[in-house]
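Q: For a teaching session next week I want to show students how multiple molecules come together into a single three-dimensional assembly. I've collected the sequence lines for a complex. Could you give me the predicted structure tokens for the whole thing so I can convert them for display?
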Amino acid sequence: MTLFHFGNCFSLAYFPYFITYKCSGLSEYNAFWRCVQAGATYLFVQLCKMLFLATFFPTWEGGAGVYDFVGEFMKATVDLADLLGLHLVMSRNAGKGEYKIMVAAMGWATAELIMSRCIPLWVGARGIEFDWKYIQMSFDSNISLVHYIAMAAVVWMFTRYDLPKSFRLPVTILLGLCVYKGFLME
Amino acid sequence: MFEEASEVLENMLKWSFPLSLVLFLVLVCPLRAEAAHEFSVYRMQQYDLQGQTYGSRNAILNTEARTVDAEVLSRRCVMVRLADFSYEKYQKALRQSAGAVVIILPQNMSTMPQDIVQQFMELEPELLATETIVPVYFALEDEELLSIYTQTQISSSSQGSSSAAEGTSRLLLHTATANGFQMVTSGAQSKAVSDWAITSLEGRLTGAGGEDLPTIVLVAHYDSFGVAPWLSYGADSNGSGVAVLLELARLFSRLYSYKRTHAGYNLLFFLSGGGKFNYQGTKRWLEDNLDHTDSSLLQDNVAFVLCLDTLGNSDNLHLHVSKPPKEGSPQHALLRELETVAAHQHPDLKFSMVHKKINLADDTLAWEHERFGIRRLPAFTLSHLESHRSPARHSIMDMRPHVDLTKLSRNTKVIAEALARVIYNLTEKASYVRISQHLQVQEDQLASLVDWLTAQPRAAQLLDKDSSIVNTLEYYLSRYLKDVKRHLVRADKRDPEFVFYDQLKQTMNAYRVKPAIFDLLLAVCIASYLGVLYLAVQNFGLLYGFLRRVTAPRVKQH
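A: Of course. Below is the structure for the complete assembly, covering every listed component.
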């Protein structure tokens, strides 16, 4: 609507990240560069996913209203690459203990925020027309921050070899939920 | 943290200069937001005639919308529906220096009650007479525009009732979250169109029997006029006149093609442009023919000039003259024949002569025949209107339903018969019967002509010499007449008789906006949310400990 509105949405989207970074003590561990590395890994993973999707899944020429279950299922499976990426980040990135999770999740979520939310906000929120969707988008980025932290934690738990057996099942279920979240919501 | 951040960013920037350049370009590119609704608006007339300026001067718009009953109207776009429109409200908007006025017309004018239509028709000249800086637009109503209007009305009227007994906090909340609309037009400021050419068309049927034959001239102006040029379809005035003229051309060209019925009169047909702007086409044509040419049909023996203006309705027919015709002259013969034909064959038609002297002190001439009268050519105008000031001649409400085809064809028959009687000098009935078989007026021909003429607006500002209407008329005339010529009128450079302005049709965008207070409110909400978040994260340890305590008994059991 105006630059002020853009400022509102921007702060709504970015400040939680800022707060999380400051308050979780990451700054004491000089982890900024590692977060950036995690973000770069995110970009790389997204690129691979896109190439894979473009090559192996041609556009489905079907009716407009029918939802292609199988196709979308396959596409969602590709999102497993996200989990692999997180795992990669956490295993390679030297970080101490639980901070690995935080570093990986922060970097990942920040990269996603910048890539997918910055430009729509800039172009859209600054326009004359007002739409609730920009506030929704900013709030959505908050939720995805929490989501990525949880996802990273679950991935880490999955890879721990000393995890009690009884916890395996809920962990796998949660992981599955993460991946197919978009698919299930349809 | 900021030092290392800046280091990192510096490194990144050095290697990604192209990227940052692209980013810079993206940042400074102009914004183009999608509008809530986009619709065409038609601007009110703007023209200068003989040095006098008329109409709305301005064209650009970027203002908030309000309806006419709101308190504060200055620098706002006032939206008004046709049903609620009145001159006082219009004056009120102008007095408060409103940003613009948008009048919403219904898609189908026939749904409007007649008295509102009549009232608006009478208001049109008054709207044009007062020269305003405020742009006045007309828009056709559709669902979205109607919803925008009702929303604006609700918010406008609620602002007025701010002294109600509601709690201030609730009122504040209401005004802060209300939906407002910003109206923005595309297009530039209006400026004068240079070198506009008004086209007129002439064609002739030469009489039999050598030189020095008397000439009868039939004239009709083909342009239309209304308060908004793009909405002036001019069905009755003067689409009906053009249809009659073209039908007469067809009939007489048939008669002239047979040797037996080839009469001793030259027939000159003239479709003039710029008729509603004080008959510019006719004026220049006369000057060219009488002053600048050596020989022309108009210079020699002219029997009379018959102008056709608004013949598509009602049971009256008036012959307007500036001088009553003398006995024994061809004009008198025509007058007599018209009376006879009307009385004997169409008793429902009331025919009369109206005498009005030419008043040169007036701003504009009354009827087209006065142009000829000034040049001492005998002329009269045939019309079903009694007065040239009738609002039906200059209205956007003059659309196809205003023309009654049976009455139009009846009038055409009357005119054709009366002309035939004068041309063939028919006094007895026998020879008349021979002619009458060729004088069949085709009603569907008239119908299709009127339908075609009213399918698009024919304001003089919209018809340049390449327009399809002019080309089609030329083609039609050349099918029946010989020597079809175009005649162009351009305004004089130094002392223009007429000046037209552009930007007559624009696209208006309505954007949904929230008032400025809303932004502040949102900022306050976000600040409080962030504060809560900060506290939550700071004290996360507490939350964690609490959760552990809750889940601990379960672990212990395990």
